[in-house]
Amino acid sequence: MSQISTKEYKKQLDEFFRKKTFAIKEYSNEAVIRLKPNPELHRYVDRRITETINHYLQRNGKPDNRVLDIGSGYGFKLRHLAEINPLLWFFGFDLSEVPVQEAIRNKFPGLFLIALAESMPFKDSVFQILFASEVIEHIYNQERLIMEMKRVTMKDGIAIISTPNGSAIPSFNLLTRVYNILRPLVKNVKIDNFVEERSYLPNIHLHLNKLKQMFRKYSFKVEHIHFIGKFYFLYAPLGFLLPKNLVKATDRLVISLSQIIEGIPFVNRLFCNQMVFIA
Q: Is 168 helix (H, G, I), strand (E, B) or coil?
């Protein structure tokens, strides 16, 4: 996939968010999740990521600490974390002005800005905690993002990245790619009149060792890696093709499988499609 200019990237991202905002009748994270083909599983994965971030906020955060959400989108995650951590100061930014304006209009807690992740509009060493949830895989210059995270993080601060696990068994990722190629052939796919189409976005799933190397290059000390069993190759085709009542049962089965595999060392690295990186 060839790289496009930042201006064109922003233009298409704005258009994507406009369509998505138009499709959301009730402005909440739950409303967005219900647009997904597998809401139960997306709800589980979103909750696990948020719980992991919150664990480190409560463990490391102190009153008046500054927390940054990189690629905050509509601000759902930031709002939830701010409500349960009222003594922390929250900041969020996104390249697209559409979700940022929605977050401001809905008076979500925190300061929301329009900015580029590879060139953050902040002074050096200003945040004690920062996190980027499902962002780095959609950025062309991923190393530049890590460098900027290091620049704005205070000494002894903590950085959290949630991203798809590129270290999962290659055949699983192959099945996912095959599915994504065949999906447009399914004529009757409808998700409440909204299907996410972001072909212009990069979608680079980093290998675990590659992400470690980038963190260490910029003097981040890797503390822990949490694996979450999303099993995209399995649930995505079923979510689009099965009746809704069967999808719900399938989601619950995959969630049960996830909860078992997530706790098994090494196996979780091979089979879990999602990872939360703490440094």
A: coil
User: Quick one: what percent of the chain has pLDDT higher than 90?
Assistant: 30
Is 56 part of a structural domain of the chain? Answer: yes
Q: Give the tens place of pLDDT for each residue, 147-175.
A: 999 999 998 899 999 988 887 765 455 55
Report residue 41's pLDDT band, with 50, 70 and 90 as the boundaries.
confident
Residue 215 to residue 228: CA distance in whole angstroms: 20
Q: Is residue 1 part of a domain?
A: no
Pick the residue with more confidence: 70 or 39?
70
Which residues, including other chains, have CB under 8 Å from residue 133's CB and lie 6 or more apart? 49, 53, 69, 71, 77, 161, 162
- Residue 10 inside a domain? The answer is yes
* Integer Cα distance of 279 and 252 in angstroms: 31
| Domain extent at residue 190 | 6-278
Query: How many independent structural domains does the chain possess?
Result: 1
Reference 161, options 201, 212, 103, 199; nearest CA is 212
Q: Which DSSP helix (H) or strand (E) runs through 67?
A: strand 66-70
Return d(Cα 73, Cα 69) in angstroms, integer: 9
DSSP assignment letter at 183: G
Nearest 5°: the CA angle 227, 231, 237 is 160
Query: pTM to 2 decimals?
Result: 0.83
pLDDT classification of 180: cutoffs 50, 70, 90: low
